[in-house]
Amino acid sequence: MDADGARTPGHQPGRGRRRVAAVVVGAGLLAAGGAAVTTALAAQLPAPPTPAASAAPSSRDGAAGAGRGVPAPGPSATPDDRGAAPTSAASAPAGAPSAAATGVPRPQSVSIPSLHVSSRLLTLGLASDGTIAVPAKGPNYDRAAWFDGSPRPGAVGPAVIEGHVDGANGPSVFHELGRIQKGARIDVTRTDGSVVRFVVDGVASYPKDDFPITVVYANTDRPELRLITCGGAFDRRTGHYVDNTVVFAHLA
After folding, report:
1. Distance between CA atoms of residues 77 and 99, nearest Å
2. What one-character DSSP code corresponds to residue 214?
């Protein structure tokens, strides 16, 4: 995610650079001036790493997202208070186990030791344009966020955690996400103090204008995790990164 709002599902706790998952809409000359400033800053910041290889799903079928925000799992997603997986014709196979029946605690923080990332989690839903909301400018900008339209980490299905790649202060929480290696561990601490550990299967980069919703969000028969942020080249014309970086992981 980039500082102005892009399409990942993923920003993070660190500094901040450009938002990846939601669209931030400005108004008037003030907004135009702000965009110019962040574009200038982007030219001075280190580019986020691009995944070198991936063991993650590579299929490109599935609906593509629209706009600059990260597309949500599906228009019919109806999050349950206990973390039910979103359902749609594209992402919910018949007979898939329901995360709603597990009573899984909410996630509180995420840690990626190999990348020296540690962040308390925000809980975010959908933005007004139907994409996944991202951390807003302010004191929580550099925190990662769990999307509450996805399963809670440890429940069956793909839990989604997003974070920014950078912002006005420099690299943000998920800036180094593209460097993660297969086999790396990701720990999610929950509100009851329990810790669920995930193992990385791979990392992939997808164009924001061709985001493979069914590949990233399709229901699974086991607990999995998706980390999402912005990546690829920075488009000075639009003020956003052109790709999303997605990490795929399964429960250890």
Report:
1. 13
2. H
